[in-house]
Request: fold
Amino acid sequence: MKNQKIKHPNTGHAWKLGLLAVFLVAALAMTGCYMEPDRIVDDTNGLAVVTGGQQFETVITPTPAVTATPTPVTTGDQQVNWSDWNFGNDTATNPPSNVITIGVSSTATPVGNATVGLSTATPKPTTTSSNSTLNSGSSGTAVKQLQQKLKDLGYYTGSVDGTYGAGTVAAVKEFQAANNLTADGVAGIKTQESVYSYYAVAKSSTSNGSSNSSSSSSSSSSNTTSATNAPSYTNGKTNIYLKLGSTGDQVKILQNRLIVLGYLSGTADGTFAETTEAAVVAFQKRNSIYADGVAGPTTLTKLYASSAKKASSVVANLGSLKLGMSGSGVRALQTRLKELNYYTGSVDGAYGAGTQAAVIAFQTDNGLTADGVAGNSTLNKLYSSTGTGGSTNTGTGSDPEVYGETVTTTGYTTISNTTSTSTANVIALQDALTSNGFSTGGSDGDYGSVTVQAVKDYQAANNLRVTGVAGPATQRMLYGSTSATGSYTKLSKALGSTGTAVKKLQYTLYEMKYYDGNITGTYDDATEAAVKLFQEVNPECGDIDGVAGPVTLQWLYSSSARPCNI
Reply:
């Protein structure tokens, strides 16, 4: 018993603690054995695929991708259209631009139907203006853009052709006056910035389209100032006749349109005198319309259309011209005096001593005050004599409406309330009108006021001449059963064509608004111009030559023929 060893109570615990320490050291050592996984360098993991196996390419060390740091949002959350992100892009990508911050903003302004509280950036003016001043005589893309914007704002009604002419000058002046700018007709940087800005004042819809004779050189005091230099041609009526002796607002609108298109110069005065008549004749010739100087429906429709052709030069001037003046009006005066053998100098647009002497000689020969000033009386007298060129309708022949009462073409005879028409034909007409949505009050065979109005409504809706009389052309279109066939003899001015065939041609063109003259039976300049216009609108006829050949006549007398739309 003496030699027996006594075991200390803490010896087993010490052994266990030592073993635990060994494990902890081993674990710590293993943490240094971490291996980074392979990085994808490209689609082939750094291997080039070649015939017979793979080989390593040059090792590429990728540049760590830059992570964009988002801007902290101070109010509310963010709504993001994630379609703006390109997840396939391995370069840094900026956050989408269409982030709307939701939360109450002290400067929030509702946009459209947006709820108050959405904070949106203040829009910047859309500017496509040029960096240089545009004025009379300028041309090019910048002028086109200016014209289009002025047209969008309601100030410009002419053709967007890139030429800074009288119409553009007038539109710019009107815009400037309405937008508190100096109304000088010159589109400087300030004017262009205003035109293209979102705060540009559009033309008031209450403008009556009248034109003032004076041009403003000072800024307007009100944004509601009415037009002073350019009319609104949408107020121009096309269902009237304007001719020598006519006066009023419609004449003024007509004159202003002729000024814009370059046929007249000066200031519209609302009086249809010889100078205006000369301009109308020139416009009619330029646009292939019967040139009689009377502005009827066909002429007015074309005049106010955007497709109206401009003049190559001014024909006449409205207002007085005198020594020392210059411009297109003087050039037109010199041209006319030269035609009448009073002026022998050069047509240079400068009212010098030679022009004054020619005016005095003309005034003396025509019983006018010989003061050398070309006032209204002198100018109107200059254009009162014949000499405008080309043959014109002398007024002989039958009135279209009178002739049309009995005309028959392709089996259709005019149906009206003044002709002896069978009840069956009237009922067929009423049925056809009703089926096309034009009520006649019933198919009773009575061509009364309701049927007359239904015919008028149908004609107006289909670009036919509105008469209330169902002529052959109206019936062909209404029934839609006549094909472009048949045997016809060629008619033309060169052949000297006359007779019934020409009369039927003229009346059909009259019904379809291509011809305004009397039914003479003579293939004259007016008839040729009407045929050309028909061929232009109906390309199925072939060449636009003014010759009514078999193909043109077949198409004209078919239900597919299109009425005048220009």
